[in-house]
Amino acid sequence: MDESNISRSETPRSSASSLLSIPIENCLVRLSIDTDEKNMQINSDLFKSSKQKFIDNIGIDIGGTLAKYTYYDLENKLVEFGFKQTDDIDGLISTLQNIIFLRSKNSPESPIKAINATGGGAYKFYTILKDSFPDIVLNRKDEMTSLIHGLNFFINLKQREIFTYSDTDGKNYVQKQDSTFKDQCGDNDEIILVNIGSGVSILKLNLKTNEFKRVGGSSLGGGTLWGLLTLITGITDYDEMLKLASHGDNTKVDMLVGDIYGTSYDAIGLKSTSIGSSMAKIYKKPGTDFNYGDISKSLLYTVSNNIGQISYLQANIHNIDRIFFAGSYIRGHLMTMNTLSYAINFWSKNEKSAFFLEHESYLGAMGALVS
Ligand SMILES: Nc1ncnc2c1ncn2[C@@H]1O[C@H](COP(=O)(O)OP(=O)(O)OP(=O)(O)O)[C@@H](O)[C@H]1O
Ligand SMILES: CC(C)(CO)[C@@H](O)C(=O)NCCC(=O)O
Question: What's the rounded Cα separation, in Å, for the pair 12 and 28?
Fold first, then answer.
């Protein structure tokens, strides 16, 4: 199985793509999964026991910001993933109706039977969903349980899914069964899963038993970054803001340790280039038109460092060394991943590691689909 079986769209992430002539916006990633027993690309008992549901159902995860969906394209043996803004619930419904229609047209012997819905929207939009799909079973699934089932699905893929990332070392894939994945963390089966959506949920999970507990959370999440940046820059396109951030220079707005000390503060391990106080240069120059890219980068660092720090603290409290980050906040954005990795390495003195997933945005939707 080579890397080409997982493809992340190289085109702008918010661009429309079409599939089987369904106008599906924001279709980000596909996954080739052969469900024939002999070629099966998944090592999971959970999947084997739910293979038929995987084929017959659609999984949706309607969050505070984005509504994600996933389903199996029976003809092409591809798992399709996509999302809509949650505010565009009508758009989501017509996309799902198209998927159901095309399945019944192309594979009448195997129609879509159910929609498994999770996330807050599975409750908030229950009636509208029920009314829109009178011939389809609508199942509601618990959000946290779906995240765990989705993680279980993705990390048991035989193909490349889990990776570490830093700007210096790049992307390095690991397999759940790899000795490198185990060695650095001993034989402990526990991990921390940090799901960064509009808000942040932190879960402790045993990979062997699938037992889990939500150990913490934070309202300072993706919605916070987006909200504050919209307020400051007036830009309403999230990808545009990420692009701005990647061209920005945060040192124009952040107060560095070097700005305070004139040098590093070696006695407590702070480099002169470390951020001493996020955005603190702004108050010194009231009325200045600060560059939006610089502010965007600084805020992205602020939110990501904060999430990295509370994730480290939770991992420390529970004596766990592996921290998985998921949620659409990440969406494969290198600067975000580098910041989270750096924060974990920095606070844990390299004793803990951050891991990422190719399909980080779809844990809930996939978990709902297979559960
Ligand atoms: N195209 C996009 N539009 C809006 N937000 C985006 C986009 N791409 C990435 N994001 C980020 O993803 C976050 C939403 O992530 P996600 O879809 O995982 O959460 P959610 O399910 O909507 O929220 P919650 O789980 O808290 O209800 C946004 O707050 C934003 O930071
Ligand atoms: C409310 C949810 C669970 C909805 O997904 C999420 O946005 C979240 O975990 N928010 C953080 C809530 C807290 O402070 O723990």
Answer: 9
Q: Which residues pair with 357 in a beta bridge?
A: 162
pTM of the entire structure? 0.92
Helices 222-233 and 292-317 cross at an angle (nearest 10°) of 160
Residues in the chain: 371
Of 141, 201, 225, the one to substitute when testing ligand 2's pocket (max ligand atoms within 8 A of C-beta) is: 201
Q: Which tens digits make up the pLDDT trace of 305-343?
A: 999 999 999 999 999 999 999 999 999 999 999 999 999
CA of 202 to the centre of ligand 2 (A): 9
Which has more confidence, 53 or 368?
368
Distance 10 CA to ligand 2 centre (A): 31
Distance of alpha carbon 282 from alpha carbon 295, whole angstroms: 9
Q: Which atom of ligand 2 is nearest to the CA of 63?
A: 5
CA-to-CA distance for 181 and 159, rounded, in angstroms? 15
| Closest-CA residue to 63 (of 187, 219, 198) | 198
